[in-house]
Amino acid sequence: MGKSVIGKWASPLAVLALFSLGLPQVSAAQADAPKSAPSDGKASPDAAGKAVCSVRVIHATANGTDFDARLEPLRPQLKGQAFQSFTRFALLKQHELSIAGGASQNFDMPGEHQGVLAYEGRADASGKHRLRLRLEIQDGKAKLLSTKFVINDGGTVMQAGLKYDKGVLVLGITCRSAG
To answer: Does residue 80 surpass a pLDDT of 80?
Structure first.
């Protein structure tokens, strides 16, 4: 116990911040759609607004101890138990996305992969403003990852698991409602 399972993955499957309990500004994936979500899985009627998201593409390795200063806001999550197998974190790319409700935007990732982030509307519950999002990672026409999640407005979710250059890629996704 105590050893991260991320280093043991043999396939590019992903974990979506399931390790984030107790860490500030990190939201865990929500297994069931909120009661206000339509049963057909489409965006809710309040999806007319938009989300502004920052997607950080991070390379995590066990070689070295460098911590990219541009990742300072994510230090508590990256230095936490979920990523204890890694000692070096470098920001490869940062994408600033403005996504209209019911729409998606693509972003580049290393290794000829393509990321897609979609804003599917608000999922407010218990007085908290929350955003419903869908993340896909594609390799050509093949989907390596397709998942939906809900985060607090202004929150961050970490996704990791795609092997890259003797380490893994980590996506740090921070989104807030903008209308």
So the answer is: yes
Nearest to 158 by CA among 14, 33, 61, 53: 14
- Contact between 153 and 131 under an 8 Å Cβ cutoff? The reply is yes
Other beta carbons within 10 angstroms of residue 108's beta carbon come to 12
For residue 154, the SS3 value is: coil
Helix and strand totals (H; E) in the chain: 1, 9
Virtual torsion, Cα 151, 124, 175, 62, nearest 10 deg: 0
Largest CA-CA distance found in the chain, in angstroms, rounded: 48
In this prediction the pTM is 0.74
d(CA 176, CA 179) in angstroms, rounded, equals: 9
Q: 93 and 135 in contact (C-beta within 8 Å)?
A: no
